[in-house]
């Protein structure tokens, strides 16, 4: 009887596409600052037994901030908890469902693929296939693996000539961070169509490798079932589904900032590369690593530009001074566009400890000299549910940042 029940639970959890879309009416989102060991231990226990709470970041250390979604039936409990622990909190979002409802104001007006709305996996893949078909001499597409649920894992390469330095971009490894793939597709389109000589130079004199959707099962689940979903969709046990793919890479795996608890949003997996999506990306990267000079990982939110390494006790890379100099130039160019301020620096120092991430893996295993994580807009007003009318401004400032990045990296001899 237990085996049958467990099987049914796993099947129900894994087949989220048929479930009703979750709603979060009157749910509040609070930013919480962890300052003491007691606060940390208590929040870690709460994450293990959430009873309706949802942690957007796991409590992994003191001196960090995280966001907690509080359901209406927990308002009084949350007030009591914060008072008892003397937690410093800030109300980020008064009604999370209203933010979700306002995310896509143009969804009923779109006729073709563009950047005033967010799209499904199938729509993004169809667009990728169409631009490859339209530009066969400079674009090539490839399927580098299959997701757990059997979806293609697709990459696309832009190359005008052999021997160019390579720039690798991966996006949407965290399912709910829709702005990451929207920005990546906009950047490719701009590299194909821009009349700006500086952008044309980037397109013609660098090879660009894009993974627009590193986690297609998770992205699909955010569209059909739960806008907050972050992980992959491979069941772990009868109650918990999914692994944080950005904690699952086989470099300093489970060495800080990752969870061994299967239901946690930062669960690192039962083993490194347990997820077909992460293993396939690593295998694909190994085929091109000797051609990659720059690697970018696109995420949201917080407005950070982060450098390796993130794991516990990690040394700074030998070229850390150069990494910070390039980051400073990039952040300045982003701010000059629309005034958006990015914090830059070592990921563990300016944000929090992580291990098993893509950037740490590509830099640590393959020796990629310039590896960076972008955490896009905003700083908490909408969190990862960034309104679609910010896609183009976010992408424009990111492009300007990348232009400055490449210019500074060229001065320093990296590209």
From TrEMBL:
Coiled-coil intervals, chain numbering: none
GO molecular function: metallocarboxypeptidase activity; zinc ion binding
InterPro entries xrefs: CARBOXYPEPT_ZN_1, M14A-like_propep, M14A_act_pep, Peptidase_M14
Keyword annotations of the record: Carboxypeptidase, Disulfide bond, Hydrolase, Metal-binding, Metalloprotease, Protease, Secreted, Signal, Zinc
Subcellular location: Secreted
Residue stretches making up the Peptidase M14 domain: 117-409
PANTHER family assigned to the protein according to its UniProt record, in alphabetical order: PEPTIDASE M14 CARBOXYPEPTIDASE A DOMAIN-CONTAINING PROTEIN-RELATED (PTHR11705:SF123), PROTEASE FAMILY M14 CARBOXYPEPTIDASE A,B (PTHR11705)
Cleavable signal peptide: 1-19
SMART domains, A to Z: Zn_pept
GO annotation, biological process: proteolysis
Cofactor: Zn(2+)
UniProt-listed Pfam families: Peptidase_M14 (PF00246), Propep_M14 (PF02244)
Organism from which the protein derives: Anopheles maculatus
Active site: 375
The protein's name in its UniProt record: Zinc carboxypeptidase A 1
UniProt similarity note: Belongs to the peptidase M14 family.
Transferase listed as a keyword: no
């Amino acid at each position: 009887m237990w085996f049958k029940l467990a099987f049914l639970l796993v099947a129900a959890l894994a087949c989220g596409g048929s479930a009703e879309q979750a709603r979060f009416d009157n749910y509040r989102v609070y930013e919480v600052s962890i300052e003491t060991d007691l606060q940390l231990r208590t929040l870690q226990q709460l994450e293990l037994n959430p009873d309706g709470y949802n942690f957007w970041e796991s409590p992994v250390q003191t001196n960090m901030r995280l966001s907690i979604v509080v359901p209406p039936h927990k308002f009084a409990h949350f007030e009591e908890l914060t008072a008892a622990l003397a937690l410093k909190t800030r109300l980020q979002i008064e009604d999370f469902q209203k933010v979700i409802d306002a995310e896509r104001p143009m969804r009923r007006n779109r006729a073709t693929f563009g950047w005033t709305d967010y799209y499904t996996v199938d729509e993004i893949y169809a667009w990728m296939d169409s631009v490859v078909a339209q530009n066969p001499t400079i674009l090539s597409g490839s399927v580098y693996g299959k997701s757990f649920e059997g979806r293609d894992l697709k990459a696309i390469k832009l190359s005008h000539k052999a021997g160019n330095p390579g720039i690798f971009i991966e996006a949407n490894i965290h399912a709910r961070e829709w702005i990451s793939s929207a920005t990546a597709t906009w950047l490719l389109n701009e590299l194909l169509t821009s009349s700006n000589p500086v952008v044309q130079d980037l397109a013609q004199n660098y090879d660009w490798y894009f993974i627009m959707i590193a986690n297609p099962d998770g992205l699909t689940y955010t569209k059909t079932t739960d806008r907050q979903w972050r992980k992959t969709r491979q069941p772990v046990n009868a109650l918990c589904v999914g692994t944080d793919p950005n904690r699952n890479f086989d470099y300093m795996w489970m060495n800080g900032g990752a969870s061994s608890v299967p239901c946690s949003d930062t669960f690192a997996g039962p083993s490194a590369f347990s997820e077909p999506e992460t293993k396939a990306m690593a295998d694909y990267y190994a085929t091109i690593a000797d051609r990659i000079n720059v690697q970018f990982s696109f995420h949201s939110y917080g407005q950070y530009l982060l450098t390796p390494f993130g794991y516990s006790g990690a040394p700074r890379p030998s070229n850390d001074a150069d990494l910070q100099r390039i980051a400073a130039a990039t952040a300045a160019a982003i701010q000059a566009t629309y005034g958006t301020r990015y914090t830059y620096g070592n990921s563990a120092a300016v944000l929090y400890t992580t291990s098993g991430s893509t950037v740490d893996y590509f830099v640590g295993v393959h020796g990629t000299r310039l590896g960076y994580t972008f955490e896009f807009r905003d700083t908490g007003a909408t969190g990862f549910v960034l309104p679609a009318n910010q896609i183009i401004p976010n992408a424009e400032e990111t492009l300007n940042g990348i232009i400055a990045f490449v210019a500074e990296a060229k001065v320093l001899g990296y590209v």
